[in-house]
Design a protein that fits this description.
266 residues; alpha/beta; Enolase-like, domain 1; Rossmann fold; 3-stranded antiparallel β-sheet; 11 strands; 21% strand; globular
Length: 266
């Protein structure tokens, strides 16, 4: 038997914690303006539940944003949020993105229901606290995250899929070889690895790392299945003002002031 995927484990945990009662319903799907404006705030869409819980997902993989913009979101209003979430596990393409946002929304619903509130994140990199001489791995090249690592004297190796980025850069190296993560003391990744199904393959090269942080607005799911796989910190976005956030997201305006960065630790 093949081992369960992280999607299967997360959905099973959500099903268990929701219990036998009716699942929350979808109130709305919120998308940023299309085509993408080039801003970070335009990289994420959201699923909103009838409880008010919001879950985010990255929408710029392949042609996801264009595909979702062309869908009739009205048909999802009132639908079973758990059924939508299962599309992350069972669906294809853009529907998996909607499913992942629903997983994050259901996770927030459960956090709110159970009175679970994560602490604020100490920094933008999941509390990795790079130290001089440490070797830090980064999965995917995210320029704003380079300085928070290298300014402390840590060595940075970035794992990328894009061959045009490979090579030496000022203060860090970019490689296409995931084995380059094996000697790293700490590893930083974003929740995009959950959308492109690379989490387990990446974690297989992180067994020597003392800390593995997953960060980003899409890192809003229940943390336990990730912790069981070796992630040590999950740093996501905790929406504090839902109405303000939705209005900003849909208009393409910055939405950071309507949320705070938080981190769950193993």
């Amino acid at each position: 038997m093949l081992p369960a995927t992280v999607a299967a484990d997360l959905i099973a945990l959500i099903e268990s914690r929701l219990g036998a009662g009716p699942a929350p319903r979808v109130r709305a799907v919120h998308l940023p303006p299309a085509p993408w404006t080039g801003s970070k705030d335009g990289e994420f869409g959201a699923v909103e539940l009838d409880s008010g819980a919001l879950g985010l997902s990255y929408v710029l993989l392949n042609n996801t944003l264009a595909t979702l913009t062309g869908l009739d979101g009205q048909r999802l209003i009132g639908s079973d949020a758990l059924a939508l979430a299962r599309l992350w596990r069972d669906g294809q393409g853009a529907e998996r993105t909607l499913g992942f946002a629903a997983v994050n929304a259901l996770s927030r619903h459960l956090f709110d229901r159970d009175g679970q509130v994560p602490p604020d994140a100490p920094d933008s990199i999941g509390g990795l606290a790079p130290q001089p001489g440490e070797h830090i791995g980064m999965v995917g090249f995210f320029p704003p995250l380079v300085k928070p690592v290298t300014e402390h004297g840590a060595r940075l190796t970035v794992l990328e899929l894009r061959a045009d980025l490979a090579g030496s850069h000022p203060g860090f190296e970019v490689t296409l070889d995931p084995a380059a993560l094996q000697p790293c003391d700490k590893v930083l990744m974003t929740s995009t690895v959950l959308l492109n199904d690379t989490l387990d393959a990446v974690l297989a090269h992180c067994r020597n790392a003392r800390a593995v942080a997953m960060i980003g607005p899409g890192a809003g799911c229940l943390p336990e299945p990730l912790f069981a796989r070796g992630v040590t910190a999950l740093g996501g976005t905790w929406i504090a003002d839902g109405a303000g956030f939705v209005a900003a997201l849909r208009s393409g305006a910055p939405w950071g002031r309507f949320a705070r960065k938080v981190v769950w630790r193993r």
